[in-house]
Amino acid sequence: MKAEQNQVIVESKFLWGRLLIPILLLVGLAVTAYVVRNFPQVEQRAIVIYPSSTPLMSLAPSPLDLATPYIRLHTNKDKYPYQASVPVEIFLNTGDMEISEAHISLSYDPHFFSLAPNDIKVLDVFTSFGLENLAEGKLDMTLFVPPQQDYLPVKTDTETKIAIINFKTGSESTDKAEIRLIFSKKSIEGTSLIEAGKERGVQLQNALENVSGVSFEISP
């Protein structure tokens, strides 16, 4: 009787062993099929979670071959739509010279642009700022270091951003909208630099050597 019981136990273990193998195979196949079927979705989610950082990169403007000291304008695009903000950056390079005053004189076509006083942002390169004229098509402003307050003059080691002017486009198209720096080497009335230690007077010279404006397309 005991021998028969042992035989039944052995046959039961053998039967469960034969059933366990196909069950494990079925489970493995089901897991494999699920992974294969859902792999494209996993890959797609990964692309969404880890986007390219290229659109977020801020590219520095390419320096121009201008004799120092110079002032130049820069925009990030060569085409802007209607009713768009156009940030125009103003860069200064003093070279080996120390500067106490920078006068910026801009001209633009009011048919294509509008500008308000709060569209002007001056950075902390100079200690003081004065807006002298803001009419249709014209902007005059001065950035300076008051000599009576013993501030150090401005000398840039490299090209330095001193201001940002946020123009706004209108609703007219043009292939070449220009924003220019009014400049004459023989005059301090337009865009000019005053060397530190020099006081304004009849014989005062414009220390600025070069300027460069910007132009771009405006279209819908």
Brief descriptors of the model:
220 residues; alpha+beta; seven-stranded mixed sheet; six-stranded mixed sheet; 1 helix; 13 strands; disordered N terminus
Structure in words:
With 220 residues, the chain is an alpha+beta fold. It folds into two domains: 1-55; 70-218, Immunoglobulin-like (Sandwich). The protein is built from one helix and 13 strands. The strands form two sheets. Strands 2, 4, 7, 8, 10, 11 and 13 form a seven-stranded mixed sheet that branches. The longest helix is centred in the N-terminal third of the chain and has 48 residues, at 2-49. The radius of gyration is 35 Å and the shape is extended.
Say what oligomer this is. Answer: single chain
Helix count, DSSP H or I runs of 4 or more residues: 1
How many domain units?
2
Q: What is the ordering of alpha helices and beta strands?
A: HEEEEEEEEEEEEE
Topology diagram in text:
Elements: H1 2-49, E1 70-74, E2 79-80, E3 85-93, E4 99-108, E5 113-114, E6 120-122, E7 128-135, E8 138-144, E9 160-169, E10 174-181, E11 192-195, E12 210-212, E13 214-218
Parallel strand pairs: 1-12, 2-13
Antiparallel strand pairs: 1-3, 3-9, 4-8, 4-10, 4-11, 5-9, 6-9, 7-8, 10-13
